Amino acid sequence: MARTALILLSCVVWGMGPHSHAGERVDYARDIAPIFAKRCIRCHGPKRAEGGLRLDVRRRAHIGGDTGPALVPKQTKKSELLRRINAGDDKRMPPAGDPLTDKQKDLLRAWIEQGAAWPDELAGKEDHQSHWAFRPVKRPPVPKVKNRPHVRSPIDAFLLARLESKGSKLSPPASATTLLRRLHLDLIGLPPTPDEVDAFVKDYSAPSTQHSALEKVVARLLASPHYGERWGRHWLDLARFAESDGYENDNLRPHAWRYRDWVIDAVNRDLPFDRFTIEQLAGDLLPNATTEQKVATGLHRNTLWNSAASGDKEEFRTYAIRDRADTTAAAWMGLTLGCAKCHSHKYDPISQREYYQFYAFFNNTNHQDIALPDGGKAMTLIEKKRVTHIHKRGNFLHKGDEVVPGTPTFLPPLTMRGKMADRLDLARWLVNPKHPLTARVTVNRIWQQLFGVGLVATPENFGLSGQPPSHPELLDWLADEFVRLKWSQKALIRAIVLSEAYRQRSVVGQAFEPDAREKNVRLESLTYFSRQNRFRVEAEIVRDLALAASGLLDRKLGGPSIVPPFPEGLLAQRFQAEALRMPTKAHHRRGVYIHVQRTLTYPMLAAFDAADGNQPCLRRDRSTTPMQALTLLNDPVFTEAAKALGARLQKSAAERDERLRLGFLFCLGRAPKARELGVLSDLVAVQQKLGASEDAIWTGVARTLLNLDEFITRE
């Protein structure tokens, strides 16, 4: 790095160390950089940053570490660096080897007295200025590509430009049935009906009508009320939504579902993301705030709470405030802000002081329930002024300096409406188009849902220790486009799913070197998006698909949560609340409406890696375990669905082959291949010879279809 080279060069040039003459002005390059390079950088540089202090970056040196500012220009008494180099043996810096000489100490003191000048040409670009995610978003020009037929949008041009540089191209488009099922699963989380499949295949068959057929389907799905359920669930993962307190008592929160319904409704209305942000973070502070805007602040009530009599109320209150600060930073900025609660961040330019300044935005709140027009209640917040202190080493009992609400200084400045900033100022700061993170983080998350992996593969970490974007120009173009689309998530999703890139088939082709190892081909094809991704759908969608295919699905929107049948005895042993021990009658509703109990996730959802509501979930795990296969075979919802699907097949057609064809359409959105039809025909014939009843035979066929890998997979 240029900075390191300059420091080392100064050491070489000046040989045995710094020198100065009485009355001379101390020079950073000549006198100070060699001291830092020889005695400090090993522990207080980019690799270690002990105590949160870095002396290789000007701004971090001025902020200091866990014990206070290292350098305060012209104020030697407030400069922690001077105190530590002159301390006793147990506190002295550097701790190893001989202490600094008197001459070195005098130089450091004189340098600080003179203003601690650190010339720009020697400071170089500081990490926070050079890091891609912290730079302002600038709309890049759309690249020109050779393969013009595959460019339906700027998205395709950006991807193709990268692929062509590697001698590659996009994969061929997926079949009509695969594409239709992909769109249904991605946008509403439900399978297409046989009639919808037949209509789309017909419209999509002619090249001249393909795009219009696709546009029509996308418009229908984005207008569906089930779109809000599907994409609202993604946000609920981030919002760590749950309906109980957590900890030992894990008491019920009977009004929490109101926030869930607000999210689903807001997503369905395509509430612009800037308003979506402001109403959740500070709806109660808006002028003439409506009841719905106050309900939106239920985001903050999704924190855990220890109601045990032995719990220290102030301790768990501070935990909840930290959770709000950390969740806000993760969901909107992709920052691991919580790493700075005990000490300054080891990698990102966030000091412990700045962490508690951010924390202060949420410290001025109390919980409150408000009455609703329908006679119910909802959770919201009220303001309560508190003084915020730094918690030394993260301990709320050991208070440090007092701080006021503020944002990290490496990001754009915060505009305040009054003398002290509040949550409304913070929310507006986050959605200011000049903020480098919010739009980038949000479009990356949307891309992740539509391709299985984001342009930034670490959505939870856009900081220096996260992965860089695979296509930085495309990421910035999408971020800028999102703002130009007036923060419309529907408009951005529409643009992505109408691209050629989204339409690609998911199988590995010969896009890269044919003699490369298969593993590398698969990895590179996903890294550069030369094909679509194939992955298992989320836990709730696995269940929704079974209910939809069988005809059991209750499509009612909103309202109190449901409790499906739990394994016998499990619910009664764990929960004291009668409402949870008795399964809900309407248990065929979508998975997004299943009650979320923090200490006991509904077992079927847990088997398929559902979020538990204990912390923000920016990307779900996708495990493959024997428990999943056993769940699909034996869980009550799937055994019930198999019986219902078997009955549906018998009712829908009289002929065996037609029943089998409909079974494939109900479950997989396509007609069976000849070999598949033959295998299932043989299964039916064998069961008939054994004397099985028609109900048993077709329940068996249904169980076979519902247990196919393809059934729970998005191609």
Structure description:
This protein has 715 residues and is mostly helical. The chain folds into 4 domains: 123 residues, no CATH class; 176 residues, no CATH class; 192 residues, no CATH class; 178 residues, no CATH class. It is built from 32 helices and 6 strands. The chain has a two-stranded antiparallel ribbon. Strands 3-4 form a two-stranded antiparallel sheet. Strands 5-6 form a two-stranded antiparallel sheet. Strand 3 and strand 4 form a beta hairpin. The N terminus is likely disordered.
Which structural category do the helix and sheet elements fall into? mainly alpha
What's the alpha carbon Rg, rounded to whole Å? 30 Å
Mean pLDDT level: 89
Largest sheet: 2 strands, antiparallel
Strand order of the largest sheet: 1-2
Sequence stretches where pLDDT stays below 50 over 5 or more residues: 1-22, 121-127, 510-517
β-strand number: 6
- Globally, the shape reads globular
Number of domains as seen in the coordinates: 4
Helix content: 40-55%
* Spatial gap, N to C terminus: 44 Å
Total helix count?
32
**Strand content bin:** under 5%
